## 1
Amino acid sequence: MKQIALLLTVTLLTNFSRAYIDTIYYDNGDVYMGAFADGMYDGYGVLIWANGDKYEGNWKANNQEGHGVLTWADGSYYDGAWVKGDQSGYGKYVWISGNVYEGGWKAGDRNGRGINTWPNGDKFDGEWKDDKMCGTGKYVWADGDSFVGQWADDNRNGKGTMIWTDGVKYYGDWVNSIREGKGTTEWPSGDKYVGHYHNDLKHGKGKYWWANGDFYSGEWFNDARTGKGKMKWPDGEKYKGDFRNGQCHGYGTLKKANGEKFKGRWEDNAFVN
């Protein structure tokens, strides 16, 4: 919002009407051409600042009010609604960088529903608050990755679904754009995980189904089967006990399909005693 310089002159037409059209040249180089009322910009007018910025549109009591276009000297511009000198309502802002936003505004910030397209090709269509992505929306990256869900402070926060270009799909909890909490991941291979995540990794309790029929249910640590768990194989073999880094390690029992049982201590998938 540009500070409006005080008018140097006021023209009175009658005792009852103070509306008129005039052109004012200021000592600092600013120029205003348009409507006045009671000595203030009021109605349609054009203000050109000495630095090259230009506003063309409606005014009320020296403030942009209604529809207008503000063009900055660098080529950026805003075309839309104004309230008391601030972008408020529906409008389009084009930055010199190539960034484009079209949608709701409030007090000069992106607010409400809107679409932002970045110069690199990324695009967000959703809700904004105080100039940040906040609420529900869809973000599509230039490389084809996409996220649909909840946002806060420009980050994926809450529930949402992420689909990567390699076909991997996750739906569940997010904190600051990281998988955190409960969620489900499905791979193109047919593998599937349902359980807890921490810091974008499988961590806590969870279940994993392999496409070949293998199945694990138990504890995870930093993306690996670690802790107490159960493993089942398609041939009927079962293991219940301790795991470390995806291997039977610690105390556990293995039951083979032929009825054999190995109960005791394991080290790196090998039965010790």
## 2
Amino acid sequence: MDSKASDIIARIKSADETEFEAMRRALAADTRRSVIDALNKKEKRIAALRAEEARVRSLYDCQNTIAKNRLVVGLDEVGRGPVAGPLAIGAVVLNSEPIIMGINDSKQLSAKKREELSEVIKQKALASCVVFIEPEEIDELGMSACLRKGFSSALRQIEDTGIHPEVVLIDGNPLHIDPREINVVKGDARCASIAAASIIAKVERDKLMDECASLYPAYGFESNKGYASEQHINAIVEQGLSPIHRKTFCTSFLDAARQTRLPI
């Protein structure tokens, strides 16, 4: 590859969309394979970025349609199913512009991408918070009551910042915590603010479970995040429960272990 082709390829890679369109027209007659490949790769990259922007804008458009363009807070929970660790509820109020590229249901993102987006969300959101409901409360009150308590607490924390949403978007089934509540099935995949809430809640809960892993290393919290993996269940059977286990969620494991140890 000669230096001129190298220079052209470098310019193609660094060009914005408008510059690239001009370069593509200017290089239409260029027959060098390296230049053609660079043009094709750049075109595919721009197409992918356009598709991603359209996907993200659809999340904003969906919530604006549901909320009739009123100020929205999105809320979502993470950690309903684990047998250890807290329930986490995220709440986020987003600006309509600029949109946050990459935002998505937290389950569709890698841990690294979630962490990156969580920082961007907290920097750009009008308001955000994460509330934890501890295992003891889950055992005492039950999950339904804890969901209502956690979502209500998160909404109060948002309003304590001076932001007063006109619509409260909640992922999943009705909780009846506020007259502004609108429930959106699969909302974390459809509405930007709910997706953002799921991301910050997931990141903060995962960080907490990583810290718990150093305190209680036998249970593998750094990898299972409190969910009932086979390794985790075996550790519960062998070690008993840690202070962060949800006792009411672990009864079946412990009962089964006792049954297998009974004399025949």
